[in-house]
Amino acid sequence: MSDRKPMMAGNWKMHHTHLEAIQVVQKLGFRLESKDFDRVDVVICPAFTALRSVQTTIDGDRLAIGLGAQDCHWEKQGAFTGEVSPLMLAKLNVKYVIVGHSERREMFGETDEIVAKKLRAVLGAGMTPIICVGETLDEREHGTTEEKVKGQIEAAFQRLPAEEAARCIVAYEPIWAIGTGHNATPDDANETIGVIRRHVRVGLGDALADGLRILYGGSVKPGNVAALMAMPEIDGGLVGGASLDPDEFARVVQFGAR
Question: Is 251 domain-assigned?
C-alpha cells in the first residue's frame, strides 16, 4: 500500500444550477463524517455559475471539501469572450482545476499544446491541475494506448520543473469505455495507470512517480469503486454521474478508502 492519500473528485460537467449545487453540497457534507475526510480527499468541480455558491457553502459549513473548476483559459485576462481566467478561479478559493478532459479535447479541439498552456497557468495561479489523459476506442483496438498516454503526459510535463510537476494530479480516462458498450475492468485501469506512472518515473524520477496521485475516470460508482481502489496503481477517481447525487457520491467516498 502506498502513502498516497486517495482522492475522489466529482466532475459535475454541465449539471446543477447554483441552487441545486448548494443542496447537493450540504447533503454530501451531512452524509460524510470526519473519518471519511481523514482517509480520502474529497473535491467537487461544479459549473462556473455555481462556484461562488459552492464556495460559500463549503466555507460556511466548514466542510473539508476541496473546490475545483472544470476548465480555465491560460491567460490571466484579456479579450477572450466567454472564458474564465485562472486568477478569477483562485480568488474564489478554487484549489483544483481539471485540464484536458476528454470532452474538451474531443468536442472543443483542445490540443496537447493548449492543455500544456492551461496546466502551467493553473500552477502559476497557485492551484493544482488535474490533467486528464486517455485513448479512444480506435486507439485501443490498434494497440496504441501506451503511445497515446505517453505522448499526452510528455506534452503536459515537457520542460516543467520537477517541483511543479509534483504539484499535479493525473486522471486516466479510457474514452473507449465511455458510452461504447465496452467495459474497462479494474485490471485494465490499473495496467494503463501503471504505464503512466512508469513514463513519469523515466522522465522525472522515482520520488515524483511514487508520490504522484493518478485517478481513474471511467464511470466510477459505488458498485465498482472498491474493486478499483484495491488496485495498487489507482489513487482515486474522477467521478462523473455518481457525483451528482450526494448519496451516491458519499458511498463512493466511503467505499473508496483503502
Answer: yes
Q: Is residue 116 part of a domain?
A: yes
Check pLDDT > 60 for residue 1.
Answer: no
User: What is the domain range of residue 61?
Assistant: 7-256
Residue 79 has a CB neighbour count (10 Å cut-off) of 6
Q: Does pTM top 0.90 for this prediction?
A: yes
Q: What angle do CA 91, 160, 112 make, to 5 degrees?
A: 85
Distance of CA 144 to the CA centre of its chain: 23
Residue 249 belongs to a domain with what CATH number?
3.20.20.70
pLDDT of residue 23: 98
Beta bridge partners of 171: 132, 215
Active site members: 101, 173
Nearest CA among 115, 116, 86, 79 for reference residue 100: 115
Residue indicated by cell numbers 466511503: 254
Q: How far is CA 106 from CA 56, 111, 124, 125, 245, in A?
A: 33, 9, 26, 26, 26
The C-alpha atoms of residue 7 and residue 256 are separated, in whole angstroms, by 9
